[in-house]
Amino acid sequence: MSKKNVALTSSGAEIRKKPLSLRIWNNRGYYVMFLPVLIFVLILYYWPMLGVRYAFYEYKPVGTPTFVGLANFEKMFGTNVKAFMTAFTNTLELSIVRLLLTNLSAIIVSLFLNEMGNLFAKKTLQTIIYLPHFMSWAVVASIFSLFLSPSSTGLVNGMLREWGILGDADKNIYFLANSDWWRPIFQGINIWKETGWGTIVFLATLSGVNPELYEAADIDGATRMQKMFYVTLPALGSTIITVLILNLAKVLNMFEPVFVLYNNAVYDVADVISTYTYRQTFAIALPNYGYTTAVGLFRSLVGCVLVLLSNWLSKKVRGRGII
Amino acid sequence: MGRKKKIHLFDVVNYIVFILIGLIIIIPMWKVLVDSFNKVGVYQFQLFPSHPTIDGYKTIIETEALYRPFLNSIITTILGTLLGLVLCTLGGYVLVQFDMPGRNAFAYFLLFTMIFSGGMIPEYLVMRKIGLVNNMWILVIKHGMNVYNLVLMRNFFEGIPGSLYEAAKIDGCSPMGIFFRIVLPLSKAALASIGLMFAVTVWNDYTTVKIYITDPDQVNFQYKLRNMIMDGDTPTTSYQVSQNTLFNAGIIAAILPFMMLYPFLQKYFVKGVNIGAVKE
Fold it and tell me: How confident is the model at residue B82 (pLDDT cuts 50, 70, 90)?
């Protein structure tokens, strides 16, 4: 990358002597090529940005929007503060715990994969553990809903009955509608789905570790366990930090995994900002788009801070930003 | 000798851990597969169906209500992938034209969308205005423009030696000519990787459909199946199969297309992750 930049800036310096209009004319083909991207980005990203003004309006499906000042925000932090703050803290808690758990399990699995000498076994396991990543959340949620269902065909309740932990069929636990169970199950499903995919980045890093480090450790008489802890794991350090920083920017994006797994019995532990916004807009009779736009604006602003924070951390730690 | 024995123990533990990890991933899928072939619904995990039948799949195939969603899924996946590739190669290519005036402005124009977004509702209102509510084309349009994939493509193009462009320019090749004759042929692997990411995203999308579409003629396969399983929108069947069999057969039908292609495409998926994530 650096080599190319040098080449281009040196040729760029020559070109810069020409007048701007000529440079623009010379590059006209590229402007035409960018045009479709420009149009799509304007419509899909920038036009909605203009829509955030409705955060200060009352906007019902019928009638015209009327300016109401900060009334929507007052509602958010006033009458609706309990539901809103629950959604906000749930988003942070679910996302951050998910980020830590899926990466922790990905690191552990990567370490084991890295130690596997049998190439066939390694490749086979990789093929298997990447698989769930390609299943949609709708499908994954359906699978686990069937397993955890309180009906007679639910795997988990059936096993618990068989082992005598649950007495009767009428004592079956409705796991996904139980506030105590929902979060552990949610995190477990996320680990099942995303661990394998998470290992790719770590394995790529490990394949670049200098073999001399292991040889030196061998000479010092290190066991394989010791090499794993003192050579392999430290080699992952910067990648782990990078992955965590990059994902910090996305913690508020949590939507689909919750959306397909939650239900009205577990709002207290499962409702996130996006699902709250969805319900307040599409699941009530006369939604006020203004109010849900305000919720979305709040989320975007906090998200913006997180992206910039993540970018700043990234520059500090690894010398280049995320954006 | 003592050392040799230790290595042996480590390998044994490693194999055991390997098998356990593999089983944790496979058992849920295997249960779904077995249950989809089982006439009766059972909770037990079976290696093979106790009452084998293919009537679950027959029902799925004969349920006309599923045809339209399946077709919609195929159409939107193909078109969404094509549109996505066109936009992200065009944009990515323009972003590596370092002597083009305004290149930085274009880059910031795109990157700003990663920092701030209007949010779900303003987006919905815009889409309603341009007629994409209750319209399956929303899946194509919404996923077709993906700034993250565009940046991946840009990163890939950046790796193509600049001397190649220079040589082509000297030979009088136009920007379009360079793009089609030099850049794209060199980018087949990246196109495959990023194209697959688009395809997976569009095929698997459920949330967009749930937000934007209520017309049953416009929904996709994921949505239809999910409704069938979770909301009891079960197809009527003339066969003697349990509801559980139908649900599981539906799940398999939803993942089958990608599972069939997956073994052949795995390396492109992995490559796609590595283009983006581990540049250093």
Answer: very high
**Residue among A34, A246, A300 minimizing CB distance to B119:** A300
The second-level CATH assignment, the architecture, of A71-318 is Orthogonal Bundle (1.10)
The percentage of chain B sitting over the pLDDT mark of 70, rounded to a whole number, equals 91
Summarised one tens digit per residue, pLDDT across range B29-41 is 999 999 889 888 7
* Residue where the block lists tokens 């939803």: B254
In the numeric block, which tokens belong to residue A267?
A: 């709002």
Among A142, A201, A256, beta carbon nearest to B278: A201
- Whose tokens are 């506030």? That residue is A179
Is the pLDDT score of B15 beyond 80?
yes
Chain B, nearest residue to A299 by Cα: B119
- For the beta carbon of residue A52, count every other beta carbon within 10 angstroms: 20
Contact B125 A205 (CB under 8 A): no
Same domain, B151 and B118: yes
Q: CB–CB of B117 and A143 under 8 A?
A: no
Using the beta-carbon criterion (under 8 Å), do A109 and B101 form an inter-chain contact? no
**Is the pTM higher than 0.95?**
no
Q: Which two tokens stand for residue A24?
A: 């623009």
What single DSSP character describes residue B100? S
Distances (CA, A) of B148 to A2, B123, B197: 22, 18, 11
Using CB atoms, pick whichever of B87, B161, B229 lies closest to residue A36.
Answer: B87
A187–chain B nearest CA distance, Å? 15
- Regarding whether B89 and B59 lie in a shared domain, the answer is no
Is the pLDDT confidence value at B269 over 80?
no
How many inter-chain contacts (A to B, CB under 8 Å) are there? 291
B175 contacts: CB under 8 Å, gap ≥ 6: A27, A29, A30, A33, B97
Span A197-219, pLDDT tens digits: 899 889 888 888 888 888 898 88
Nearest CB partner across the interface for A30, out of B100, B114, B255: B100
What is the C-alpha to C-alpha distance for residues A148 and A144, in angstroms, rounded to an integer?
6
- State both tokens at B278: 């581990």
H-assigned helices in chain A: 2-15, 20-26, 28-41, 47-50, 71-77, 81-115, 119-130, 137-148, 155-162, 179-206, 211-219, 224-227, 233-248, 256-261, 267-270, 273-282, 289-318
**Residue B133 sits in the same domain as residue B272:** no
B24 and B127 both lie in a single domain: no
User: In terms of DSSP H, where are the helices of chain B?
Assistant: 2-36, 55-62, 67-94, 103-115, 120-129, 137-144, 147-158, 162-170, 175-178, 184-186, 188-204, 207-212, 221-230, 243-277
Residues with Cβ < 8 Å from A278, sequence gap 6 or more?
Answer: A259, B120, B211
Domain enclosing residue B160, as ranges: 64-212
Structure tokens at B91: 């944009």
Q: Which residues of B touch A204 (CB under 8 A)?
A: 274, 277-278
B80 is a domain residue? yes
Residue linked to tokens 């795995």: B266
**pLDDT tens, position by position, A90-129:** 999 999 999 999 999 999 999 888 888 888 888 889 889 9
